[in-house]
Amino acid sequence: MTQANIHIIETVVAFALVVLLTIFLKKKEILKGSDTPTFTRLLTEVVLPVVIFFQFLRYPPAARHLLPVLAMLITGCCTLVAAWMVGKLLGFSRSTTGALMIVSSFGSSALLGYPLIQYTFPHNPGAMTEAILISELAVGLPIFTLCPLVAMHFGEGSKTAGSPPSTLLQYFRSPIFIAVILGFAVSRLHVPLESPFVAPVIEAAKIINGTLAALACLILGMQIKVESFKRLLPIVAISAALQMGLQPLLAYGQAVLYHLGGLERQVLVLIAAMPSAVLGPVFAVRYKCDGELASTVTFINILLAVLGIPVVFWLLGH
Asked: Are 129 and 55 contacting, i.e. CB atoms less than 8 angstroms apart?
């Protein structure tokens, strides 16, 4: 086992420990469920945009980064179709099939992926730039567009659902997407980062960047609800096999096909192996697409990631 694999195991276990601490603090009412929206907005509207913008500013992306983005987008879409085929084959209800598709396709690339990449490649800043592009363009955008569409189509609340154009507009207006566009544009200007006017701002961004992992763990712990999920174990197994089995294989196959370098392949495989995105259950609940199932499967997939991610990275990443 390589040092990178050992570090991934340590990182995922550390994540689990902090999440368990959060659950304990919530049980003791030191943290309250009503605080979750505040932490979530802080992460998505402040921390992530700052991290993304200054990552682009310090390490401008090149055209070669677009191939991993294409590979991840194709991977997610293929898994989405595979989940639909499994649901049809096994005779699942419409809402169950829709929930399975949502939690088995596009993973938690920002909430878990960014911190994991950050700590897995601490001395390789190019890895974070790669992860941001893959995550925001090939994972984030589909989550905000395809997942609501799936939930609306397979859920019981389709008559009252919002229109796809409004969902797309919501994503384009989000601080995260704006940070991607601004960061990419400003990075072309070659701003002197050592300037006495710019250097303090960069240092402030580094401080904010340090809160990324802690907030991610905190939000996960606040959202988890331990319930009986024995009846859902078969669906959990299917979802995990698609999310952390099929997806990395598809991503790795394309990495070989496109002749991607070692770092690009490793980052792509890690992002593809991420467990279910926490936004998936939000859409499932909103459009009555078996939100209980989506939430439970997402929770268990995150726990399975403790073993799944290191194994996938060991098999495919190096």
From this structure: yes
How confident is the model over 297-316, as a mean pLDDT? 79
Terminal CA-to-CA distance of the chain, rounded, Å? 10
Three-state secondary-structure class, residue 261: coil
The CATH classification number of 3-317 equals: 1.20.1530.20
pTM comes to 0.72
**Is pLDDT above 70 for 5?**
no
| H helices present in 90-154, as ranges | 94-104, 114-120, 125-135, 141-154
- Kindly state the tokens that stand for 66: 């677009």
Rounded to 5 degrees, what are φ and ψ at 107? Answer: -90, -175
Contacts 24+ apart (CB under 8 A), 167-170: 168/144, 170/144
**More confident position, 303 or 94:** 94
Phi, psi of 123 (to 5 degrees): -110, 20
In the chain, % helix, strand, coil (3-state, to 5) comes to: 80, 0, 20
Sorted by where each begins, the domain ranges of the chain are 3-317
